[in-house]
Amino acid sequence: MTCPDCAARYEIPPDLAARLPARLRCARCGAEWHQDAPAIQPPEPAVPAETVPENAPEPAAEPAVGLMPAGVVGIPPSPAIGTPPVAVAAVPPEPISPASPVSARRIAVAPAPETVRLLWLASIGVLVVLIALAIGFRGAIIHAWPPSLRLYRALGLAR
């Protein structure tokens, strides 16, 4: 599959492909799109094995080069160009209910401005009440904690 915005290519494991159609999100650019189920293709005919003489030297193995988009983790790379396809037995996908969830990340949502304003007012209200209590009960506070007398004297509130 390919992201329609940044053209990042992804290989979808068969167990996740069975859950398509679904809404997908690109790991590179964050774009979201609706992906339909891929069309089922008929299996390719098996290629006969080549006969190799017993004393023939083994061909040098070329390293497979697979390109993956930056930041994509856990998705196997595409096979290198020129690599012959591997024959895989066709297994029909298990039926799933439409309510089966496809894994997705939660997006943090900022609170509404009215909520933020209300939280600020509540915080200021708590501070006002604490200051009023500290002034109203300053005699008891000074008696219970004598070093607080210096603070009350500095504020001009000592008795």
From TrEMBL:
Alphabetical UniProt keywords: Membrane, Transmembrane, Transmembrane helix
User: Which residue range or ranges hold the Zinc finger/thioredoxin putative domain?
Assistant: 2-33
| Disordered: region residues | 37-61
Report which superkingdom the organism of origin falls in. Bacteria
Instruction: Kindly give the InterPro entries that the UniProt entry links to this protein.
Output: Znf/thioredoxin_put
Enumerate the transmembrane spans.
118-141
Species this chain originates from: Acidiphilium iwatense
Q: Where is the composition biased (Low complexity)?
A: 47-61
Q: What is this protein called?
A: Zinc-ribbon domain-containing protein
Keyword presence, Transmembrane helix: yes
